[in-house]
Amino acid sequence: MKTIGIIGGLAWPSTVAYYEGINRLVADKLGTLHSAKLILIQTDFDQLLQWLLADKWDKIGDALCSLARRLEGAGADFILVACNTMHRVMARIQEQIRVPICHIVDAVSEKIKPMGIRKVGLLGSVVTMRDGYFSDRLAEDRIESLIPGPEDQEFILQALKTELSVDIYTPETRAVFRDIIARLVTRGAEVIILGCTEFGKLIKPEDSPVVIIDTVPVHIELAAKMALS
């Protein structure tokens, strides 16, 4: 079994989901008492968030590259970053380490391609929705991404900062997300991608008239597959 190097704490609730999910899949495959070989290193999310809000991606890249090198030095066979938004700097990290990165968009693309889907609704942080690191990678597989309008993006940003990142999930916020999803479907989205590691605790399949793909479980599935290959 390969050793997974996980960069977590982005924020910590999603790291818990990754740790539990990977170990459950390994146990399902190998037997109840088996667990994954993994090394976990955690960031201070508050510091990274301040850099993100100040658009200091060079500092974010430096910090994550340092953690990735430490994981590689500790024996990780590949690296997983337990956060969608931070995948913006994955290309830079890959340049500085020898082991591969388990990329979250590759996991999503593997899930979508057999479905024959050509247009998805992408929900995520403002960076994930606007920057292109996610949508451009999907576009390589001829999958178009639709994103919410400016007002909906602002609501999502505030919900992430004040609620979801600290493990708070309210019916009121869920109702607004349901409306945002409906608007994306009206525009032609055939699938909704929950492109933020906190969204899966808020949004459920019944909140969307089309299939929902949560990036966390599909990323976990790819990591377990790589570890057991």
TrEMBL record:
It comes from the Eukaryota. Belongs to the aspartate/glutamate racemases family. It comes from Aspergillus steynii IBT 23096. InterPro entries: Asp/Glu/hydantoin_racemase, Asp/Glu_race, Asp/Glu_racemase_AS_2, Asp_race. Keywords: Isomerase. One of its GO terms (molecular function) is amino-acid racemase activity. This is Aspartate racemase.
